[in-house]
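Appendix B, Record 12. Input sequence as logged:
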Amino acid sequence: MENLKNNPLVKKIGLNRLLLIGVLIVMYVAFAIISPTFLSYSRILSLLNYVYFLGFLSLGVTFVIATGGIDFSIGPVMFCCALISGYCLTSYGFPMIAAMLISILVGCLFGCFNGYLVAYWSVPPFIVSMASMNIAKGLASVFTKTQSVSWPQASAEGGWYRSLVKIGNVPVGLFIFLAAAIICAIILNKTKIGRYILSLGSNKEAVRLSGVNVKKWEMLAYVICGILVGIGAIFFVAAYTTVQPGYGDQYNNEAIAGCVMGGTSMAGGLASISGTVIGVFIIALLQEGILALGLNKNYQLIITGIIVIAAVYFDVLGRRRKN
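Logged structural output:
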């Protein structure tokens, strides 16, 4: 085991990430053997549709968890962004660009709301996110009069936004998502923003005593999360078109599972954007595999819950060893 850890390739990529890539490959091969249709290009495109919006949720919540916080409102907030911006588009005649900006703005406002309560009012993140989840559901239902919202089809006026996901059979969304992940990795690992966010998760009190405005940086993590959730909403409608009020809860656990599985510690102070990306692909592959096998989607909920528990358990074990 020590020889494996000392291998130059393992050191560069990371043992945890290599294991995750191995799990991803094994899962894909297993599903392909059980269901040959899993190898079809259309099935791959379907899998990627799930990766895009879930990926942006996971990237966002990575910043929050890195501070030692949590946000269980990201799924309903994503739906709220899609519903409000979509209603402005279809009922009030807003231009497509304006609707997309509204989606990002709504997400940003929720991020500001969550971050301000957590950082400046010292309200526990769990309580704040639970409240935001209900507010997002209620606000979306009131704004749309409890009606579902259908964004334009590709052939309709303004349907160009769907090219964010794919042009023909080219998965454009994959390149956009990976570019966003690279930007997030640079912010988290190479900038002052990322250093302070990670430091808050490691030892918030020590950072405060060093003269840093911890409230500002903690709030910023939630704002970044909100912006990415708003972008995720755009990719959700670009892939699936129709959004219904009152949904989104299931994506909270899936996004957090992808994040924690990828190496981000629930205790804060340790985060991996590349690990989050691999974790998201595993969750999306699991979802698509269950559908391909004709199983009920409830099986995915059970497995995702087990993955979250296992990931947190191994995180706790790792921290105990270090201590």
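Strands lie at 149-150, 242-243.
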